[in-house]
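ENCODED BACKBONE
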Amino acid sequence: MKRKSPAKAPPGLLHVGTVAAAHGVAGSVKVIPHVASLDFFAPGERLRSDERDLTVMDCRRAHGALVLSFEGVGDRDAASLLRGARLFADRSRLPALEEGEYYWADVIGLAVFTVSGKRLGTVTSIIETGANDVYAATDEAGGETLIPALEWVIREVDIAGKRMVVDLPEGL
């Protein structure tokens, strides 16, 4: 499944999803998640949208997306006002990662270079394959390079420096 994160989150927040549309007549919304863990969308969790704080009342999976209900959003008109809203969670809620592990939101936006110094583009999305993630790096002309997220391919990740160095296998 391909997931995109169109913009960086404000400081201290993690972009966890985007409201795609109203869903049904009771105030639910369809959300495209930008994180692997659905813990952020559990009932009672608090999220911040571009304009307001929201508390999750209900969450269920639906055809590659999520259907969420929020407190205070009780009808289709109210849900429609959330269309396009980015949803954020407090980064302090994130568990610490092991060496060599990174949050998707931190990888998206990294500049990608080969070990010889050639710029391949910027990571614009991450594809889950089941075996390993694949980073999609898009160059200035719109060309895309797919990079398997494997230790022998990804040579360096510098989150602070916003840079990744890769050693692509022959043919990529």
